[in-house]
């Protein structure tokens, strides 16, 4: 009696297993797909061998070409390598969606919310609103300049306090997270924390935990969602959810504070403005504005804006201690243009061309160690002559175009800011798409560039940075997270 259903079940499983190994026609080449697992085992093996997922897919690109087609669990994934192919990918509107996977809805009450992981009309309206009003509250304006100048001076004071005699040994990889968080949070919610404020420590801890959980390398429970029921602890699901819950609680408290004190006639920050729109639209059905959307947008801004900038600064100072001659040259330029006393402002940027080159070289070192954010094909399309069906996840690998031995940049592992100076002007090669290209381009580049310029200039004007005596030079290897970061390192800081 049981034989027939059992045989049928085995037949269906075998058929499904066989079908899961078949690739769509003209899909980008890549390793063969095993039943149910796709090529996850081969990629995982390569990742173990090379130490990073980024290097694993680069290795596959050597064999299969710049556009490779993978399957991880049940998900089709295309990884794009090399400047030309990555630019073609980012400029293709058909590839401008975001994956609609449970990883990005678990955090937001089962809905697709926020800016970074949404798409379609919802995303377009929300992005437009945010870009417009971030500008009202200072993005790219003199307000922003004043705010960044204040924060960079706070960092100088902090380092001066650390230096009790002539020098201090500082954890450089974590020095920038507080000031960068402050610049971002001041624009969004008008809040500034002092370095020793316990609320800041709380926010830091929550964010660090969350960012650890949202790695670009992927979560086991995202590729195999049933694992969140079978092994919620071991698959990382519980940790992921807990970190997000703590951040949403923190943000809800801030929204409540705003609700108690805000005046719709005089919005103080982006959060006030958002609340005004929510109240105005309260009766509208299908409004894309809601308190939940506000919370997840803030979360997105933290995720997109804090680590990116502070990790670029960490890479910058890592290379400045490894290349003391570069540090000296930048300091000489600062001395020549500003002297030791005048506080730098954003308007000095165009006069400090070598410093600007140091920043571009640091961005190359940071961006070149990572992927783009994941995209999704919103309809069937073509990329570099291959067929990309609708709903495929697609990411760009920046290693090959910025750091790999086949990239168009001379001696790519060398930190050489001069490479951008052409006849006294700063010329950045097209391959360095540090802030992306096309519809999903970064919306925070003005703030990021402003922060990078002021923090580097202010610190080099006041301090010397070097490898601690008797310590080995810090490693240029990196840790994977949501974005790449240097392995923890210390430097000696002394006043000039
Ligand atoms: C060094 C600092 C930064 C770098 C290198 C950087 C880089 C990028 C890149 C490459 C993208 C596009 C990814 C893609 O193609 O999907 C992006 C998107 C984004 N960035 Fe940035 N970013 C930085 C700082 C910031 C800051 C400070 C903010 C916020 C104030 C921010 C907010 C965003 C947002 C919201 C998106 C998503 C846009 C969308 O999906 O429509 N970023 N960023």
From TrEMBL:
Q: Which organism is it from?
A: Callosobruchus maculatus
Q: Describe the task this protein carries out.
A: May be involved in the metabolism of insect hormones and in the breakdown of synthetic insecticides.
User: Which GO annotations describe the biological process of this protein?
Assistant: organic acid metabolic process; xenobiotic metabolic process
- Which keywords belong to this entry? Endoplasmic reticulum, Heme, Iron, Membrane, Metal-binding, Microsome, Monooxygenase, Oxidoreductase, Signal
User: Could you give a GO molecular-function term held by this entry?
Assistant: iron ion binding
This protein's name: Cytochrome P450
Cofactor list: heme
Where is heme annotated to bind?
442
**Listed InterPro entries:** Cyt_P450, Cyt_P450_CS, Cyt_P450_E_grp-I, Cyt_P450_sf, Cytochrome_P450_fam2
Signal peptide residues are 1-17
| Chief place where the protein resides | endoplasmic reticulum
Q: Where in the cell is it found?
A: Endoplasmic reticulum membrane; Microsome membrane
Name a single GO cellular component. Answer: endoplasmic reticulum membrane
State the annotated membrane topology for this chain: Peripheral membrane protein
Protein family per UniProt: Belongs to the cytochrome P450 family.
- Tell me the organism's taxonomic lineage: Eukaryota, Metazoa, Ecdysozoa, Arthropoda, Hexapoda
């Amino acid at each position: 009696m049981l034989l027939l259903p059992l045989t049928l079940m085995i037949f269906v499983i075998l058929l499904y297993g066989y079908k899961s190994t078949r690739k769509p026609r003209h899909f980008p080449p890549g390793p063969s797909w095993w039943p149910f697992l796709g090529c996850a085992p081969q990629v995982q093996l390569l990742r173990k061998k090379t130490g990073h997922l980024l290097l694993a897919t680069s290795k596959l690109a050597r064999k299969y070409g710049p556009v490779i087609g993978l399957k991880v669990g049940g998900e089709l994934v295309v990884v794009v390598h090399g400047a030309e192919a990555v630019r073609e990918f980012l400029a293709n509107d058909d590839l401008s969606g975001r994956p609609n996977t449970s990883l990005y809805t678990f955090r937001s009450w089962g809905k697709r919310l926020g800016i970074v992981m949404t798409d379609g009309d919802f995303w377009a309206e929300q992005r437009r609103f945010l870009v417009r009003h971030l500008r009202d509250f200072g993005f790219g304006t003199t307000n922003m300049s004043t705010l960044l100048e204040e924060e960079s001076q706070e960092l100088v004071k902090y380092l001066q306090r650390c230096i009790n005699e002539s020098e201090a040994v500082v954890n450089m990889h974590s020095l920038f997270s507080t000031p960068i968080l402050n610049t971002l949070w001041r624009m969004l919610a008008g809040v500034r924390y002092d370095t020793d404020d316990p609320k800041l420590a709380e926010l830091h801890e929550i964010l660090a935990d969350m960012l650890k959980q949202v790695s670009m390398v992927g979560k086991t429970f995202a590729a195999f969602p049933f694992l969140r029921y079978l092994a919620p602890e071991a698959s990382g699901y519980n940790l992921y959810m807990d970190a997000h819950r703590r951040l949403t609680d923190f943000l809800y408290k801030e929204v409540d504070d705003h609700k108690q004190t805000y005046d719709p006639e005089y919005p103080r920050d982006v959060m006030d403005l958002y609340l005004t729109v929510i109240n105005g639209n309260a009766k509208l059905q299908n409004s894309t504005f809601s308190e939940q959307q506000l919370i997840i947008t803030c979360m997105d801004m933290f995720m997109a804006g804090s680590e990116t900038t502070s990790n670029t600064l960490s890479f910058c100072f890592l290379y400045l201690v490894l290349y003391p001659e570069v540090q000296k040259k930048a300091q000489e330029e600062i001395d020549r243009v500003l002297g030791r006393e005048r506080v730098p402002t954003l308007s000095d940027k165009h006069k400090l061309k070598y410093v600007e080159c140091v920043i571009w070289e640091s961005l190359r070192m940071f961006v070149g160690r990572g992927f783009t954010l994941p995209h999704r094909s919103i309809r069937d399309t073509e990329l570099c002559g291959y067929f990309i069906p609708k709903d495929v996840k697609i990411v760009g690998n920046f290693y090959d175009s910025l750091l790999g031995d086949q990239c168009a940049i001379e001696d790519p592992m060398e930190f050489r800011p001069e490479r951008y100076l052409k006849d006294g002007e700063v010329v950045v090669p097209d391959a360095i798409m540090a802030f992306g290209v096309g519809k999903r381009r970064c919306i925070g580049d003005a703030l990021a560039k402003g922060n990078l310029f002021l923090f580097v200039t202010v610190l080099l004007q006041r301090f010397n940075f070097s490898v601690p005596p008797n310590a080995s030079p810090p490693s240029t290897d990196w840790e994977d997270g949501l974005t790449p970061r240097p392995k923890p390192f210390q430097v000696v800081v002394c006043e000039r």
